Amino acid sequence: LEEFTKIMNLSSIDCVCARIWLKDRLPVPKPANVLGNFEKECGATFFHLNDLHHEFAPKGTGSVFQCDFYHANAIVPLS
C-alpha cells in the first residue's frame, strides 16, 4: 500500500532491552524511571515490572526488572 512506503524515510535508533529476574521481591520507590549520564550518547528507562504488569504481580514472584537502553550502539563495545 502506498501509505506504508513512507516508513522507508523514518530515522531510527538502536535499542537494547535487558530483563533481570530475582528470587526475592525488592521494594522499589518508583516503578519507572529514566537513567542518564552513564554514557555520553546513551539513555535508558528502568522498570520494576512487578508494579506495572499483572503477570508479575502475584505474591511469591521475585522482582523482575527491565532496562531499555536507547542509542545502544554507544554501549555495545562495553560488553
In short:
This protein has one helix at 49-52, and strands at residues 15-21, 32-39, 42-48, 64-70. With 79 residues, it is mainly beta.
Q: Care to describe what's here?
A:
The protein is mostly beta strands. The chain has 1 helix and 4 strands; from the N terminus they run E-E-E-H-E. Strand 2 and strand 3 form a beta hairpin. The longest helix is centred in the middle third of the chain and has 4 residues. It is extended. The model has no long low-confidence stretch (mean pLDDT 85).
List keywords for this structure.
79 residues; mainly beta; four-stranded antiparallel β-sheet; 1 helix; 4 strands
Provide the low-confidence segments as ranges: none
- Helicity level: under 10%
Mean pLDDT: 85
Question: Structural class from helices and strands?
Answer: mainly beta
H-E order? EEEHE
Looking at the structure, what is the overall shape?
extended
Structural Rg:
17 Å
How much of the sequence is in beta strands? Answer: 35-45%
Span from first to last CA? 41 Å
**Strand arrangement, largest sheet?**
1-4-3-2
The major beta sheet can be summarized as: 4 strands, antiparallel
Task: Compute the number of helices.
Answer: 1
